[in-house]
Amino acid sequence: MPRPLPRLRHVLALPIPNLQRTQFPRLRPAPFSQRFATTTNTTTTTASPAASSFLPATPDNSFQKTAKAQRKARKDAHEEKDQGKSGGDGVLWNGISGHAGRWEVVCGLEIHAQLNTGRKLFSDAKTSLNETPNSHVGLFDAALPGSQPIFQPQTLLPALRAAIALNCEIMPESRFDRKHYFYWDQPGGYQITQFYHPLAKDGYIKLFPTDGIELGEGVEEMVVGIKQVQMEQDTAKTITTPSLDPMTTPSTHLIDLNRVSHPLIEVITTPCLPSSTHASLALRKLQSLLRASNAAIVGMEWGGLRCDVNVSVRPRGSTTLGQRCEIKNLFSIKVVEEAVEAEARRQVSVLENGGVVVGETRGWDGELGKTFRLRGKEGEVDYRYMPEPDVPPVRVGRGVVEWLRREMPELPDDMLGRLAREVKAGGKYGLTLKDANTLMAWDGGARVGYFEEVVAKVRRHLEVAGEEEEVIKDAGRVVGNWVIHELPANLTSANLTWTQNPVTTTHLADIISHLLLGKISGRTSKSLLPYIITTSVSSSSSQSTIDIPTYITENSLLLLPLSSSDLINLIKKVINEFGDMYTQYRSKKLGGLRNWFVGKVVREGEGRVDARRVERVVGGVLDGEGKAE
Amino acid sequence: MPVVRGVERCLAGIRTHNGFLNAFTNLRPAETLLKEAAEANQRILSNQPLSRIDGKIIAVKDNICTDDVPTTCASEFLREYRSPFQATAVTRLNTSGAIVVGKTNMDEFGMGSHSIYSTFGMVKRPPPAGQEDAPFRSAGGSSGGSAAAVAAELCDGALGTDTGGSVRLPAAYCGIYGLKPSYGMVSRWGVIAYSNSLDTVGVLARDRKGVEDIFNAISGYDAMDPTSLSDTTRDRIKEAIARRRGQNKSPLRIGIPLEYNLAELTSPILATWKHTLTQLSRLGHPIVPISLPMTKHALSTYYILAASEASSNLSKFDGLRFGTRSPLDWDPETQTLFAPTRKSYFGDEVRRRILLGTYSLSAEAMGNYFVKAQRVRRVIRGEFDAVFGLQNMLYNKAAEEAEDAEEEQEAAGKVDVLITPTSLSMSPRLKDVLAQRSPLDSYVNDVLTVPASLAGIPAMSVPVGVGEKVGMQLLAQFGDEEALFEIAKALEGL
User: Fold this and answer.
1) CB interface of A with B, residues 20-49, below 8 Å
2) Which residues lie within the region annotated Disordered (chain A) (predicted)?
3) Cα torsion angle, B227, B230, B235, B236, sign
4) Are A29 and A250 in contact (CB under 8 A)?
5) Residue A392 neighbours by CB under 8 Å, 6+ apart
6) Is the dihedral of CA B158, B177, B492, B415 positive or negative?
7) Is position B61 annotated as part of the catalytic site?
């Protein structure tokens, strides 16, 4: 046998820890004193542990909020590099109020949204919102020894819809990684997330004036970069009964694993938002996109969307970013705005007093209106990211992405473009921007479909009646008035919500087309809504038994058109009544005065004659010819 | 009632010898065993056995979940832990008619090479006949309890787990057969993870056929294990093996990896290695020296990767949802959670590896240790692929059909099975093991077994020789357990 031989001693290069010398690491979330830094003014919950476990954790539970903030992480080193790189290209608008001249603020958002999906990320347990605690928990969700994660492919769909809505490039292959930290709400001791190979990258959203943003002269939009979209597990919900004396007795934390492993997406924007307003507008936009794309269902108020914000300030005109701080776990858009503003002020005041901003993780104290230090660099958690060995890579076929793109629900910007005349020339409905926004904002956009259905029906009636193109086109605006103003007003006085609305699209279309075709008067048309509402409420009869055309005929509400001679008599009556005007018209022959007479006649006719017919005749009568049509 | 008598004999053996061997941690109730034995007996008598292992008495390593007796991993942490579900491998034993007799002792969480790090005390190797008064020797680890139980005839066969040699080393030390299947062949669902990317469920038995029968019973696709090999992959491997054997009608070609010829190999081992190769050569097997240059990095690579994954996998042991929870769980002095529990109930070796893994994954060390180790692991796998005539069907999906004549020629010159020793020496005295000053002294025992684990390929320790048996390790391409069984058969009676 051949020799020389390798010697084992020389081939072992291991950092073997010596237990005698190595201090065992302190595996802990945070000292209790720190964790409850903001809870001094909060009243102790009176609920017994057993009872409180059935209560959903509310966002204003500061114990939970700060505890969460503690556990959540600082930004990772590689992101910090990116921030430095991409900082120079941002166009900056507002400064910080009071310091506008000298400082500008730069923010980036990191949001976590619960995906709209029926299964957990790695077990076939169902997702739930307010079920009996610990009733929807798979073996892997509780991290039982010997259990393994089984990726649920259907959870990909809402995540991909989000990536498409945020204009991201979807990676053909993404992978899962483990992020380690100890906390009671995380059974495995690590969160499975996507660190090295996220689901989607390099997207953007656009903010328009319609989103409420103020832009410079000639600027039409602001682009907010989306760095990446990744999938990850949610943690358990904690219901805390605080200790009366934290130094001697621990608090009681009841843990509900129903939320563990609910699929989340994390969306990270580039640091490009130049004010608290921009931050809140971008967040609002992200939220509406995630909701409209059917990626996430619940809003921030339900804890379904959580946000961290990176804030840094720099001298105006500087192209490099200042040292940033991360504010953790902001639970509403308003809070994001307040926290950014407060943090920017704090950083500016540090700098103006000759200090240095220290990179750290901060929390938000709503009562004091200040951010506070959670942990600095030295307290930073090393997450020890490691590829998840049990979950195979996720491969997304191009076909799936194409199919999802085709099936995407309409996104808010597109919908606004369709509804409002200002946004896109030749918009189909010609609503004002304000009305379009109102329509979309109400009932999560439920009225848009109603509106469109009514418009379609009205237009069909008008077409059948051979109405002119222009009238048909204008139907959108008229229907808008009814859906946005008339109908809600009637519902409100009847104490009905939108979901209880008894007025069907057929009812409303019948009313409006009768009106537009001159068959009923304006006064009549307005009386029909209360009729429908009171009839359906009082008789609780089904809506379909109400038939508007029949009702109109049976109650003789139809306008009888004026005969030609009656019309001429009516015009003459008006001339007699307004002699002065008539004299003026005779001497000057002003077109404006003629139109004034048209208006008067139409009004006197109480809807039995329309303006175009009057126009054709009025000139002859005024000029003394007295000719009929 | 031969099966019932078999169970009675095993139980009697356990009563007599387990006090000394310490091979079992928990046994299933005798009534249950006898009832199952009677049923199996009935099936066999009526000539309707469920499988070739119907009525066989099998022990199961204590890190494989069973839902009727505790699953402890030989850890204080899980001393009383009862899993609410059962491992797929155990379920497959049940449906094959095998009788699971109980759970076997091991190194805590599978971390060790001598089965000495157990909360139930150390395992002792069954002394060969006539040596009952000799000093206690190591049964090997971490599946030492399984190996000792099989060697002492307390059961017909046993399941172990093999992450870096934990089935092969004890098999070699105890003079029995031990198989580490290809990664993904046997479901890991219900196997408490030490290092997911390396863990396999292995088989120990006193003869080659016993190993083969148990392996066939537990091998198969399982949807509960995301790393389980699919049926399509299994079929593709079978086809590739058939093609290879079809082209190459001559006896299997045997490779000798030169890098395994270490200075530390003791003389009985070296002599048996030579003897084995001579015999196989006489049987007509071509013997080919080959080189696997990265072998020298395998041990460090293994300990970095296994410890890293272990540090992560063992994070879940915080005492909150299962297992033991320290009364000091919340330490008012330091205001820390979990740490008191983890400190009290993990043994020294487990803590050592958690710390090693935690360090390897830390931001500061990640690039130098974990990332490099992953890279080395791929190279090691590549080196094995280069010497085997059979393709690695996990990584060569496209090349499968496109073999031209030249490639065929080249493949013909490559080997089917590698033969190396399983261990550097015969089973050491426990006294000497306990006297070792550095954990590294123990870690080097795995030097011959970890490369196959890193590559995911099947490996089997086969007892060879007259008198005290020496473990010879057979290695084959991914999925080619068949070649191992064939050579093991040829070595029978050597």
Assistant:
1) 22, 24-29, 31-33
2) 34-91
3) negative
4) no
5) A151, B226, B227
6) positive
7) yes
DSSP state of B423: S
* CB half-sphere exposure, B222, CA atoms < 13 A: 22
Other beta carbons within 10 angstroms of residue B221's beta carbon come to: 15
Question: How far is Cα B270 from Cα B265, in angstroms, rounded to an integer?
Answer: 6
Cα separation, A228 vs B76, in Å, equals 43
Q: Which of B96, B113, B138, B142 is catalytic?
A: B142
Residue B142 designated active-site: yes
The span from the CA of A452 to the CA of A247, in Å, is 63
Which amino acid is located at B147 in the chain? A
* pLDDT digits 0-9 by tens, A372-423: 888 776 667 789 999 999 999 999 998 999 999 988 888 888 887 777 765 5
Q: Does residue A143 belong to the interface with chain B, where contact is any CB pair within 8 Å?
A: yes
Q: Does A359 touch chain B (CB under 8 A)?
A: no
The answer to whether B296 faces chain A, any CB pair under 8 Å, is yes
The domain in which residue B186 lies consists of 1-494
Burial state string for B393-421 with b = 16 or more CB within 10 A and e = fewer than 16: bbeeeeeeeeeeeeeeeebeebbbbbbbb
Nearest to B218 by CA among B60, B440, B388, B404: B60
What is the number of domains present in chain B? 1
Q: Is B20 in CB contact (< 8 Å) with chain A?
A: no
- Closest-CA distance, B315 to chain A, in angstroms, reads 5
Torsional class of B109: left (φ above 0), alpha (ψ -120 to 50), beta (otherwise): left
What is the chain B residue with the closest CA to A9?
B444
Q: In angstroms, rounded to a whole number, what is the distance separating the alpha carbons of residues B266 and B448? A: 13
Quote the crossing angle between the two packed helices B295-313 and B370-387, to the nearest 10°: 130
Asked whether the ipTM of the predicted complex exceeds the cut of 0.90, the reply is yes
- Which is nearest to A330 in space by CA: A35, A33, A66? A66
| CATH (domain of B263) | 3.90.1300.10
What does the alpha-carbon distance between residue B34 and residue A339 come to, in Å, rounded to a whole number? 70
**Among candidates B156, B148, B46, which has minimal Cα distance to B93?**
B156
pLDDT, one tens digit per residue, over A440-492 is 877 767 788 899 899 989 999 988 888 788 788 888 888 988 998 889 899 88
**CA atoms lying within 13 Å on the CB side of residue B280:** 28
B51 in reach of chain A (CB within 8 A): no
B 444-473: CB under 8 A from A: 444, 447
Which of B441, B471, B113, B450 minimizes the C-alpha distance to B268?
B471
Partners of residue B100 on adjacent β-strands? B58
CB atoms within 10 A of CB A626: 12
| Per-residue pLDDT at A95 exceeds 80 | no
Contact A187 B336 (CB under 8 A): no
A255: chain B residues, CB-CB within 8 Å: 320
A300 pLDDT tier (thresholds 50, 70, 90): low
Chains A, B: CB contacts within 8 A come to: 184
pTM for the complete prediction? 0.80
Check B270 against A1: CB less than 8 A apart: yes
B113, B118, B138, B166: the active-site residue: B166
* The residue type at A195: F
Q: Do A11 and B299 touch (CB under 8 A)?
A: yes
A392 preceded by cis ω (within 30°)?
Answer: no
Closest Cα in chain B, distance from residue A346 (Å)? 31
Q: Tell me the nearest-neighbour CA distance from A352 into chain B, angstroms.
A: 34
| Omega cis (within 30) before B142 | yes
Which runs of E-coded beta strand occur in A10-97? none
Inform me whether the C-beta atom of residue A391 falls under 8 Å from chain B C-beta atoms. yes
Three-state secondary structure of A287-343: HHHHHHCCCECCCHHHCCEEEEEEEEEEECCCCCCCCCEEEEEECCHHHHHHHHHHH
